[in-house]
Design a protein that fits this description.
Blueprint (H helix, E strand, L loop, with lengths): L2 E3 L10 E3 L3 H9 L3 E2 L6 E2 L13 E5 L2 E5 L5 E3 L24 E8 L4 E10 L9 E7 L14 E2 L2 E2 L13 E2 L18 E4 L3 E2 L14 E8 L1 H4 L4 E3 L16 E6 L12 E2 L2 E3 L1 E7 L4 E6 L2 H4 L11 H9 L6 E5 L7 H13 L6 E4 L13 H21 L4 E4 L10 H14 L6 E2 L29 H18 L2
Parallel strand pairs: 2-4, 22-23, 22-24, 24-25, 25-26
Antiparallel strand pairs: 1-2, 1-3, 5-6, 7-21, 8-16, 8-18, 9-14, 9-15, 9-21, 10-13, 10-16, 11-12, 17-20, 18-19
Length: 483
C-alpha cells in the first residue's frame, strides 16, 4: 500500500507520501505515525546515496589543470518502447497514419540543460521527408492557460514566435546536417533513427514549481500526403501532470490539424498520440543514459496506468539527481524475442546514441521453451550474452547489466531448470552485472510467481506492485552502485 507520514520517519519528512515494505507501513499506521489517507500529502522522491563516479585524471601543466577521461554530458530520454502496437519496423503503409497536423511535445530534463537535439524514429515502410521542427524552453508546464500550451514562457511572458536574433524569447528551428528538414529512410528491415543537429538552448528555472525539473517544448509539422505516412504512439493523460508513478517526469503531447509551426502562436490542443520523437539533453554535469532493452516485462506499456511508467522509467528517476542526471531510454519490445530488442539496441547505437548503462535481456520468455529445442535455444542465449559484452566494449558502452529470465508459471521442472541454470550462468560472465529481483518467485521447483507480484495472474508479467517495490528499486540500486 501507499502511506502518508504524520511525522518524520528515517530520512522522510512529515506529510510525505511514500511506499515502504508492507510490514513497515503496517507498523507505522498502527503506531499512528502514518495514515493510508493520502489527502494533503506530497509525493516524496528520495535522493539516492551515490557511489563515487570514476574520477577524471587531473594533471598540472604550466600551472593549469588538464582533465582527461571526460564523463558523458548528454542524456537521451525515450519513454516509449520499440514495439508500437506490435510493430518494431516495417509497418505497412496502410497501417501508418495519414493525419496531417502539427504535433507538440512538452517534457522535462533531469537537470538544467544548455543544448538539445530531437530524435525521430521511423517505423513506417515509407521514407519521411519535409518534416520541420522547432524547439524552445519554458518556465511552466501548467495546463491551466490554453495560450501557454507547448510554447515558450519566460519571465511570465508567452512567446508564440520564433526568437528574434540575440534573444532566447521564442522558438528556434532545428536542423539535420544543416538542412531545415530530414530525409528519414523507410523502415523496411529495421527501424530508422535520425537525430537532429545540436541546438544551443539554455533552460530556465521553473516558475510554476520552484526548483522543479527544467522543461523544453518542441513542435514538429508533417504532411503525410507529401512526405510519407508515419507511425505514432499512444500517450496517457496520466503523464500530463506530476504523480508518484511518473516521479514528476511529465510528458505532454499536443496536435493541431494544420500547420501550427509557420505561425507558432497558434494554440494547440492536448493529444492522446504523438510522433515517435524524443529529446537528447546536453548538461554541464556528468550524465548517464540508461537503456533498458527487453520484452513486455520491461516495456510495461500495457501493465501500468501511465503507459510510459515502466520499472526502468521509475528506477532511473529514483537514481537521478541534478548533480548526476540519469536519463531513461525504453527499448522494450512487447511480444518479441531477444533477437528483436537486441537489434533495436544496435540500431540506436548506430545512430550515434550511445548508452552509458545497457540493461538488457539476452533471453526472453518469448523465445520459447520447446523441450526438443531447449539445449540449442539456451546455447543461443549464452552466445548472445557474450555478443552483447563484445559489442559494448567495441562501442564505448561502459557498463552492461543483464536482466535474468523471470518465472513463468507454465514451465515444467525441466524447462524451469534451464531457466534457473541460465540465470546462474549469467552471473559468471566477466564484464557484466545481473539485476536481482528478490521475492518475485516462490522458490519452488518449478518456480512460480508470488501471486501479488504477478500481473492479474497472467503467469509471466510483473504486477504494478512488483514494478514499484521490487524491479524499479533493483535498477535504482544498480545505478547507484555503478556510478
Amino acid at each position: 500500500m501507499t502511506i502518508r507520514l504524520l511525522c518524520g520517519y528515517a530520512n522522510y519528512p512529515a506529510n510525505a507520501i511514500v511506499i515502504l515494505d508492507t510490514g513497515t507501513e503496517a507498523g507505522l499506521v498502527a503506531e499512528k505515525m502514518a495514515t493510508t489517507n493520502l489527502v494533503g500529502g506530497t509525493p516524496y522522491y528520495p535522493a539516492p546515496t551515490l557511489s563515487p563516479i570514476a574520477a577524471d585524471v587531473a594533471l598540472q601543466g604550466n600551472g593549469r589543470a588538464k582533465r582527461l577521461g571526460m564523463a558523458n554530458i548528454k542524456g537521451a530520454a525515450k519513454w516509449f518502447g520499440s514495439a508500437i502496437a506490435g510493430v518494431t519496423f516495417g509497418g505497412l503503409i496502410a497501417s501508418a497514419s495519414p493525419y496531417r497536423a502539427t504535433w507538440g511535445l512538452t517534457c522535462v530534463a533531469e537537470a538544467p540543460f544548455y543544448a538539445v537535439q530531437l530524435v525521430y524514429v521511423n517505423l513506417a515502410n515509407n521514407q519521411i521527408t519535409g518534416l520541420r521542427a522547432i524547439a524552445g524552453v519554458t518556465e511552466t508546464v501548467s495546463l491551466n492557460i490554453q495560450a501557454n500550451l507547448c510554447k515558450p514562457v519566460i519571465n511570465g511572458v508567452t512567446y508564440g514566435v520564433m526568437a528574434a536574433p540575440g534573444t532566447i524569447n521564442g522558438f528556434f528551428p532545428l536542423t539535420w546536417g544543416g538542412a531545415p528538414t530530414p530525409t528519414i529512410p523507410a523502415s523496411a528491415t529495421s527501424s530508422q533513427i535520425v537525430a537532429s543537429d545540436v541546438l544551443a538552448l539554455n533552460s530556465v528555472p521553473r516558475a510554476d514549481v520552484p526548483g522543479g525539473l527544467h522543461a523544453a517544448v518542441f513542435r514538429i509539422d508533417h504532411d503525410p500526403g507529401v512526405g510519407g505516412k508515419f507511425w505514432f504512439v499512444a500517450a496517457s493523460a496520466a503523464m500530463r501532470t506530476a504523480t508518484l508513478e511518473n516521479r514528476g517526469r511529465i510528458v505532454q503531447t499536443f496536435n493541431y490539424g494544420a500547420d501550427a509551426l509557420t505561425n507558432p502562436g497558434i494554440n494547440v490542443a492536448l493529444s492522446a498520440e504523438s510522433h515517435l520523437i524524443f529529446p537528447i539533453f546536453h548538461y554541464a554535469v556528468p550524465s548517464i543514459t540508461c537503456v533498458v532493452a527487453t520484452d513486455s516485462t520491461g516495456q510495461n506499456d500495457q501493465l501500468v496506468s501511465g503507459i510510459f511508467t515502466s520499472w526502468g522509467y521509475r528506477g532511473c528517476a529514483d537514481a537521478s539527481t541534478p548533480a548526476r542526471p540519469v536519463n531513461y531510454v525504453n527499448l522494450g519490445c512487447s511480444s518479441k524475442g531477444a533477437a528483436e530488442f537486441w537489434a533495436r539496441t544496435q540500431e540506436l547505437v548506430a545512430a550515434g546514441i550511445i548508452p552509458d548503462r545497457l540493461v538488457i535481456s539476452p533471453a526472453s520468455v518469448n523465445d520459447g521453451y520447446v523441450i526438443a529445442n531447449l539445449a540449442r535455444t539456451f546455447a543461443e542465449h549464452r552466445s548472445r550474452a557474450m555478443e552483447i559484452v563484445r559489442f559494448a566494449r567495441a562501442n564505448g558502452i561502459r557498463y552492461v547489466c543483464f536482466i535474468p529470465l523471470l518465472p513463468y508459471n507454465d514451465l515444467n521442472a525441466l524447462q524451469d531448470r534451464y531457466r534457473v541454470e541460465f540465470n546462474a550462468w549469467l552471473a559468471t560472465v566477466a564484464g557484466a552485472s545481473v539485476l536481482s529481483f528478490p521475492g518475485i518467485g516462490d522458490g519452488a521447483v518449478p518456480e512460480r510467481w508470488v501471486p501479488m507480484m504477478n500481473h492479474k495472474g497472467d503467469k509471466f508479467h510483473p504486477s504494478e506492485f512488483c514494478i514499484e517495490t521490487v524491479m524499479a528499486r533493483s535498477l535504482t540500486a544498480y545505478l547507484n552502485t555503478n556510478g
